[in-house]
Every structure is written in structure tokens, then in C-alpha cells.
Amino acid sequence: MKINEVSLGVTRKDKAIIMIGQPSWKATDWSDDGNLLALLNEDSAKQWVDAFLTKARQVNCDLLVLPELSIPEKLTAVVASWSAQTGCIVVAGSHYASDRGGFVARCPVVYRDQVYYIDKIHPAPVEMSPLPGKSIIAGTELTVFSNTSVGTFGVLICSDYLADRVKAALRIEMLDVLCVISCQRDSSMYHKRMDIDTESAEKGIYILYANSRIENISDGRSALFALTDTMYQKAFKKAAQRKDGPGTMLVELPDNKDFLVAAIDIDHKRPVIPRTVNVRPNVQLIEQGVRQHTPSNLNEPAKVGRVKSPSRKGTSNFISDSVLIREEINRLIAKHGIDDENWAKAFSSIYFLSQLAETMKREDSTDYRRLLDQFLTYFRFRADDTIALIEDRILVTPDENRNIRAAMVEEDARDPYFAKTPKTKAANIDMQMMHENYLYGVALGISARQQTRVMSTIRDTAISHLVHDTRRPSRDPGGGWIPYRVPWITARIIAIFAKVDVAGRPDASPIKEAIEQGLSSLIHRLDQGGYWKSGVGTWVSKWECTALCLEAFLLADTKQTYKSVIAAVLGQILRKTEEWIMADPGFDTDAKANDTLASVLMSSVVLRLCANYIGDPSLVTHENEKRMLSVMLHALRESSDAEKIHQRQFSTVPQIAAYCAAACVQ
Fold first, then answer.
1. Is the four-CA dihedral 195, 197, 200, 202 of positive or negative sign?
2. What are 64's strand-pairing partners?
3. Which of these, 505, 470, 474, lies nearest to 489 by C-alpha position?
4. By the 8 A CB rule, do 306 and 555 touch?
5. 617-654 burial string, b = 16+ CB within 10 Å, else e?
6. Paired residues of 102 in beta bridges
7. CA atoms within 13 A on the CB side of 256
8. Which of 68, 470, 523, 543 gives a 20 to 30 Å CA spacing to 577?
């Protein structure tokens, strides 16, 4: 069989943090259609994967090992995006994948946004069948990973570990770490062999065994095997209250635990003989515990979406500053009205003003009704009861599309990221479709809550363009809306769709599918640095773009499929607050206005995201919370000076007010 070597190009750590996961399932969560196990309860899988990834991020894990068949294939992309944000290597369970006219048992090994697949070489008897097309196809290649944070490691899938020819081909004695993932009802035979292999490894080895607990199918008993000084070995046994069993099995997960975290010394895989005063444990158990829902509530839906989580609404920072922010918003509305003629010059401003009116409970006001009348002037009504946007009336700044393309060209000259592929190169962007998608998205947002016949017509027209138009498709094959280069277009449309009640509509399914594909595409476009590139250069900053993308997940990821990824992004963002929380917001120049807008949007979205999506408002320190509230308050105060507002900034002030209100007004 062929042996591949993959270098991850990472400096090996002296001590690495490893985590082994052991999810628990009920037998009814699984199907054995034919002879191959398949996980039926994918929603539960999403929950436990999120829980395990969150824990791995919290402990700064270098290598996370999850059991055979524990991760559905569709979640591999989520794991890859999470790894891209954290730098953790993930042995992401396995799944049965279609290949070569049949099925293979395949383990994704994920690092950053790269996925390397390892196929099972020696299928278990239960995976074979006397009937045609019912057996899995044996793999032919093994992979050794070198230059990693945990040294050199390999992965074997369940029965491959029991096949001497496979183990010999991998040359496990040359590895620093061996990961064995299983779905096995009798772990004892694995434990015995692992004890022998660990004991006989001349240079030492760490064996990480991950096995699910599935009633009547798999017995758990995940474990960490290593050679260590006898006094430390005795300490491990005493802590586990274990009198017998394999001597090199330092930790075995009991039934009431589902993960263990340990630090392993890659440079000292065997104890020093004779012992000296400098001897230290080469394995340190950091933690073992429970991260997953218990089997009794695995089938319960997660409390997600816009459900309010514990928040800081009672802290002195939030109470005092949010009161001032509400007062400033009310002062702004009193001075200008919801239908201010300068603000309403920008079509997108009407959307932000409508959102502001909703949050501030001004939907019954006369100026709000005048605002909606102004909105209708942007449409041409036809005799057949259809409508069309009058696009010539919408561009506020001269040659806006041309200026945006110029910003794209400038961005490509400065950063070749988008210029690498013809699809995202500035010269090839369909500016007209980009413009139409944004406009119809905004039109949908304004008409979403209105029940009149004309507003229903606008709403249906917008949805038709954004979801159903096949003559000139508005969506990109890669997911999201055209252009793929510009993620905030997709993000804005998703956030707007999240506020549209599609229940009872005959096209509810394709709308939901479009949203799901859009969210998935945003994950694929996420930079490893924890932000989204705007795709339009300085016209929209990366932090404004990032805020809009995060808001899409806050409002639309109702199953919290991407919660672990977004939590990892937040971790990076909150370490970079100096980049996006402004000390002196203002509108003196377009550049400063853009930075102010980005700072307000990021502050509003991060506060809401931590409280209502991640469910942990304490992620934002009190100091950072005060800085975020301060930037919102000062931006509102600066925006009250109309002389400072330039033409291109007509939509900036309503947007700032709307986002401040979203964060601070209940």
C-alpha cells in the first residue's frame, strides 16, 4: 500500500494540548440500513460538535480527536472553517462516502482550511456483505503527517489498528502520536494491544483512542496511552481508582465523562532512566468532563435564533450608556423626523430608517408613513399589477457603479487575493446585477412588515428576483448572491430575509435553501485572520463587511450550525479591538465616516452576537463594553451636526442610529 507524507509546515511544540472526544448516543439515533451504521440525528450531531469545538478553543487545543462515524460529512466544512480560525488539527471522525462506484469509510483530517482524507484499509466484518453493493471498498493509501504542532502523527480507523499489515505499513514506532478512532463495542482488545505498542515503542509514542458511547453498539472507554515515570503512572491509577488494567493507559474516560484534555511532552515520550531531580511529568491531565447534551435530551431542539440569552443589561455600564444612547436617538428623530429629506435621498437610508422606526416604535407616526410614500416613488407600477425599480432615481452619488469598480481595481492592485481567479477579478464583476441584488434586498427589507397590497407586490417582486429569476440568475453557483467577490451583499440580503415571515408561502423551502447556501458561502469566504474582505476596497471597510457578515449569522443561523466557527471568529476579533473601536468617531472626511460606521456596526453586532447567539455576554470585558457603547454614543452626537454630513454619507447616519438602537433599545 502507498504511504503519503503530508507536511503541515508548523513548528513542533515542546508541549502540545490534545483533546479526545467521546459523544454519547441512544441506539435510536442510528440506522443500520443494510449493514452500515448511519447517524439519523444530525441536529444532535451539530450540537455536540459545536460543544466539543468550543471546549477545544477554550483550552487552546492543538489536536482534537473525535470517534469513527461521529461527524456527518456535511459538517466537515464547519470543522474546516473552525480550524482555520483556531489553528487546531482535527481528526474529524469518519463517514461513509460515495467513491469508485461504492462506499468508502473516510476520515477527514482537518488543518486550517485544508481537508486531508484517510480511507479505511481493512474493513471490519460488519462492513462487508455477501450481497452486491453492500460492502465498503478498501482503501489503498495511508498518510503520515509531519511538521505539525504535535510532531509526526498518523491516523488509523478502527479495524485498521487490529490489522498487523496496516499497522506495520504505517510504521507507528516512528510516530510521535497515533490517533485511533473507533465505533467499537469491545474496547478491551484495543486497550491490550495499545498497551503493548506503547510499551514496545523504543522512542516512545502517545496513542489517543476515541470511541463513542452508543447503547448496545459502542462502549466508549476512550483513552490516552503513554509511557511515563512509574510514580506518575501510579498517580494516574490512583486518581482513576483503577487497580488493574493496562499499565500505559494513563486516562480512560468513564461513562459519565465525554472529553479529556491533556498536555503531552513531544520531546520526552519515554521516562528518563535513571530518574533525576529534573524529571517532570511528560503527560499532564488538564481536565475531563461533560460538554454534550445527555442522551435523554439529545432530541430536544436547541434554544437558538433570537431567543434572549443571559446578558449584561443590568450592569452599570450598559444601563447608564444605553439610556444616553436612547436619549440621543430620540433627540435625533425629534430634530430630523423619520422622513428627513436629506436622509431619504439614499434608497438604502429608507431601509435603515424603517428599521429605526420599528425599534423605536414609531411605525404609527405620520413621518413614518411619509417615509413609506417616499419609498414608493422609486417604483414604476404596471397595468398587470407588477412593479419595477426606477434605478435612475436611486443612485445618489454620480456614477456610483463606476466608482465602486474603480475601488475594486485599486484593491486588486494592492492585494492580489481577488485577482487570482477570473470569477472574482474586478474587471469581470457584473456590477449591474450587484446593484440590482442590493436594491431588491433593501426593497424586501422595507416592505417585509407591511401588509398592504402594493407592499405585498413589492415584496413578491423582490423575492422573485432574489430567489426565482432563472432568465438572469441573481445567485452565484458557489452560494450567496452575485457577486461572490462581495460577501456583504450576501450578508445584507440574508439578514433581511431573516426578518421576513415566509411561513405559509409556497416558496418557503427554496427561500430557506437560498439562505442556507448563502450562510455556507460566507463561511467559505471567511479569512483565517477572523474577518471578511469587503471586495470593494475602501468603499466598504473589512470591519464594516465583517459586522454585516456576523449579523447574518446572528439573525439567520437559527440552528446555530456555525456557532463554533463564529465563536472562534469572535475570539480573534476581541483580541483586535484597537483596530475597530474608534477613540474619536466623526464625519469630517469620507474615510473617517467609513471608519466610524464600521466601529458602530461592529460594536452593535458584537454585543448582540455574544448575548443572543453565543449566549455568553461575558466574552466582552467590561472595559471593551464601555468602549463600544462610548463609540456609539459619540457617533450619534457627532451625526447631529448636519454640516458635517457629505453627500456620500446620507445613509451613514440612519444606519448608525438603527444599529445603535438595535443594541441598546429593548
1. negative
2. 19, 90
3. 474
4. yes
5. bebbeeebbbbbbbbbbbbbbbbeeeebbeebbbbbbb
6. 99
7. 1
8. 523
Q: Determine phi and psi for 380, rounding to 5 degrees.
A: -105, 125
Phi, psi angles (nearest 5°) of residue 39: -80, 120
Residues in the chain: 666
Distance from C-alpha of 100 to C-alpha of 98, rounded to nearest angstrom: 7
The per-residue pLDDT for 658 is 96
DSSP state, 536? S
What are phi and psi for residue 396, nearest 5 degrees?
A: -85, -45
Question: Which residues partner with 7 through β-bridges?
Answer: 146
Compute the distance between CA of residue 139 and CA of residue 196 in angstroms, rounded to an integer: 26
Q: Which residues contact 134 (CB under 8 A, 6 or more apart)?
A: 34, 35
The distance of Cα 619 from the centroid of its chain, to the nearest Å, equals: 16
Mind spelling out the 3-state secondary structure of 75-123? HHHHHHHHHHHHCCEEEECCEEEEECCEEEEEEEEEECCEEEEEECCCC
pLDDT in tens, 397-447: 557 788 999 999 999 999 999 999 999 999 999 999 999 999 999 999 999
The verdict on pTM exceeding 0.90 is no
Asked if residues 159 and 139 have their Cβ atoms less than 8 Å apart, the reply is no
Nine-digit cell string for 49: 460538535
What gap in Å lies between CA 151 and CA 173, rounded to an integer? Answer: 13
Secondary element (H or E) of residue 200: helix 188-200
